[in-house]
User: Fold these one by one.
Assistant:
Number 1:
Amino acid sequence: MKKVLLLIFSTTAIGAMAQNPDDALRTAWFTQNGTARNMATGGVMGSLGGDITANHVNPAGIGLFKTNEFVLSPGFGLNKNKFNYRGTDTSNNKNNFNYGAMGFIFSSSNTRGEKKWTSSAIALSVNQLANYNNRIQFKGFNNLSSFTEQYLEELTKDRADTNAALSNYIFGSSLAFRTFLVDTLSGPGGSVAGYQSLVPISSGVNQLYDASTFGGYHEIALGLAGNLEDKMYVGGSVTIPVINYRRELVYSETDATARTDNQFQSFEYKETFSSKGIGIGVKLGVIYKPQEHWRIGFAFHSPQLMGYTDKISSSITANTETYAGIRTATSNELNSGKAGERKYNMTTPWRAIASASYVFREISDTRQQRAFISADLEYVNYRGARFSPANKSDNALRDYYDILNEGIKDSYKGNINLRVGGELKLHTIMFRLGGAYYGSPYADNAIKANRILATGGLGYRDHGIFIDLTYSHMFTQDAQFAYRLNDKPNTFAEQRGGRGTVMMTFGFKF
């Protein structure tokens, strides 16, 4: 496969907390989440409206409200992951609570009739766009590369002397150097000719990657929409994205041979990483009814401008047998007992949604509507994510982020997501089905990735009270990298599995 750029920046100790293009996907590649009704129909909301989820998809849709409404959407997720790494299969499960769109909608009707604007509505809502609670675990035999080679690339690129190797890379290379997992190569007259890894790559090692992730991508939205003679609806929302992400990683390599004289038995790398961000964005939309039964919608989501603070602590324990024995080094020892901290900015990719719906018996009294079918086409410019330093005066950091952004453009592409769903209404009971396909964000065709949703649910509405129950199942195909290298093809674990979500929405009109 095409090598994906690994970015190494180490002129300061904090620079060792290098980012890579994977970080851009955390706020870009996710499936539609909302109320139970919305999820049951595959996430279609580009032209339907009449649901609080519209405030996060096409704000024009809240213009269809003519009553006030309060909504709650608790949920529960069931993760089942399967990985194949270099011919070895592993699987694991992780379940967790989550939530969908919830909040308030306030509407106002024009009862005088002298204006073309029939009604307007304001919505204040929160939605979890992505749930990060998961466990990524895979293992396998590797005789092509080692996790330690990224340290060799870092030290070699910087032409680091031994003093720099001991102290300048406190979250990675310095830990490897202090535990003799990586050591110097002697040159003429006792000089340092370079660096070597004590991992016996040619005979192979057994690798294990085990990461537990926590948190979510949340969005607060304040939306306003207007209804023009029940023919056209226009709206917009100001969004505040809030990111809370944490990863606890344990990675190890163990000698695959039974030898006790090759100066390597094993090493274990541990890392605790957290990332918190907050930002602002805008979503604009329009829904038009060209004729009875039909609705056509278009929405544009601007890039969200976000500020991040990341923290990291790490350690390495290595057993190099007769070479240096068992040694441990931690970043806390090299950083006055504190986690490393990094501040930076990010611009998320923009997206656009085109949608059409056909509503059977399309009349103003929604209680008389009998069914609908709807479809959304969504384009996401995954390669459009951009990072920048919080400190604009730091030229070295600016150069680093320029390289990172080039890596993102090389690694990803824009792609289209498709959502389809429908509802059948029998008086107070609704039956719903839907599905969705989310295409690969990767530019490299060797990485097979997609997400497929199958959804269904029931709803009840009567006397201003509604209860919806939904089950959606996501089939996942993705790639997980344990590490990335510049000088060798990168190997990755093929991920297949699924995530089931049970969502219930309760609400009432007032």
Note: The radius of gyration is 26 Å.
Number 2:
Amino acid sequence: MNVYEGRFQEEHYYVRGTPHSNFNECGYEDMAIPDTGFRLLALYRYWGIIEYYFPYRYAIDGDWNDILREYIPVFVAADDPLSYQLALQQLIVNVGDSHAKILDEPDALREFFGSFFTPVRLAYVENQWVVDGFTHESALSAGVEIGDVVTAIEGRPISERVEELYPYISASTEGSFYERLGRKLLRGNTGTVNISVQRGCDTLVITMPGIEEDDLNMDMAKRPAAGDGPYTLLDNRTGYAYAGMLTRDDVEGMMEEFQHTNGLILDLRDYPKDFVLYAVADFILPEETTFVRFTYPDYTNPGTFIWKKPGTAGRGDSPYEGKIAILIDEGSVSQAEFTAMAWRLAPQARVFGSPSDGADGDVVFVRFPGGVSTRFTGIGVYYPDGSETQRVGIQPDVLVMPTVDGLQTGHDEVLEAALEWLAEPRE
């Protein structure tokens, strides 16, 4: 008891008293490849930080102590930059957190994954890799089409590329795993890549350009399902809002325009452009409502977490009276998930789509010897009853999965299911 009560309980150099701060560890950036001692330091540092400051350590698959023993020989043997960086990435994968990855990929790791990006976005639909968006204008002239099923890369079955990358993908859930894997499958180190696609009964080989990451236009692939702005009237009865473009300044005007509609669609299938949770909640929740609970690390007692005051949203001033459909998928991550937790508590709200990413909570950062950095979810986020979102995701009320046929024919099955429900008489 004397030892426990006499422990150091003031703010100290290595760990700050807020989850938003970095762990103040030296990154030894001047080391191109850390020697064996510093590589082991990287392993011990990460293991210890996760052991004492990761709010979801209890959800890690297997025994975290076994991970330490397993990776000691891996880090001892990792005596070149690529081996070391891959060892770090594999270690991080064990945490099962979509927020966790190596940031600003170092040269060796970037070359391993591919320095160039093929300008299409892939989705894993009905157990196939399907083009569902473009990320550069050059994709349009290359001849690829939305709905093309990619079967091979440079003559190799795409399954072989999946197997190569599988150990290095950090994800909270199966859906988020495939979403992140799809970002890397077509990366390469040459100016072009030949992909084989199935289009109806035809098999085509299309030469795609390699694009520098800074030249990609992700907005081409992430567009509203209706209209071309943050919100629009689909008809006189239904409003549609796209969180990927919506700002807090838009909300009051949007809700004024939608005030007399019968239904409202809130599309969270993208990372919100702005923190609009509370602004929208003020118009759709009839009273101040508790929607979330948090755990924060106790910095005076490493390894323990403290329940903080629950979060509330809504003010109850002239709430929207129509039905509300909230759209999510595996790309709905972090802030989008946090937002869905609040909005789904509106009296006539229903969530449509597939389970969200499952990484909910502010991130914290860690530096490793060799100038490599990572991050992980630093606070616990739970529903008011204590049920989890991390590694679970926001679960839809109505499960709707995209199909290859829907992509090929331009049908948004999730949006269509929501519209069908909104057209039904109120219960």
Note: The longest helix spans residues 36-53.
